What we know:
Layout: E1 2-5, E2 11-17, E3 22-26, H1 36-45, E4 50-54, H2 70-83, E5 88-93, H3 95-105, E6 110-116, H4 133-142, H5 146-157, H6 162-170, H7 174-181, H8 185-192, E7 213-218, H9 223-235, E8 239-244, H10 255-267
Parallel strand pairs: 3-4, 3-5, 5-6, 6-7, 7-8
Antiparallel strand pairs: 1-2, 2-4
Amino acid sequence: MYCVTSKDGTKIAYDKVGQGPALILVAGAFSYRKFPQQVELAKLLSEYFTVYNYDRRGRGDSGDTQPYEVEREIEDLQALMDEAGGSAYVWGLSSGAVLALLAAKNGVNITKLALHEPPFVVKAEDRKPPKDFTRNTTELISKDNRAEAIKYFMTKGMGAPSFVVSMMRIMPGVWSKLMAVAHTLPYDAALLDGYMEGKELSAEWWSSVRMPTLVLEGTESPVSLRHSAQALANVLPNAQLLSKKGLGHTKKLNTKKISPELTVFFTANH
């Protein structure tokens, strides 16, 4: 384990494997650097890249300086970028893709960007979280009601059926891992605030994200995620869409299908 210090003094823990150009992995909600699929993906990519796999603030071994602001998470990514030599490739999953995208918009020196099913809601007819989703998530955590926050985030935010949450509660080792990072769910909600209302994406708003970008979606994924990926690929100035079976993330992440696609994209001459 290594650590960098973010701009506000927060320690950010990361692992580093492999050799080659720097590639930073940005996890989504509930995930952290020791999450099994995150470790597998880092290992598979390490054949071609120096992979930085980190704990977003509040998770694993990273610090959690309060109050939380999205800008602090962007600074965390910048601190890792500085540690990697000042520029890097970046892959972000789900809310981690939103974080990576916002970092790119705010000038973090990402040379190539892979956005994996960012959970925007871009069509009025697609399922949307409640309007007070961020406030409710934050309120549940402020009352230390982690179990209810997990259920609320998964069902109302991610659209998972209630029985999925019930199953997770009885799966060995799964529920305890979710509980350990539940207090960071308001952070993911804050990242998505304003982007889940069923509105079209603005090409002007994202016009500064000019690096080569790959937007990934699984053909088996929920329609709202697919609409989001397609919309982003359309509005970003230098993006391509990759749609394939097995690239979805709402169940188990298929690292053996994802890693070759990322390797081809990041090693290609653009």
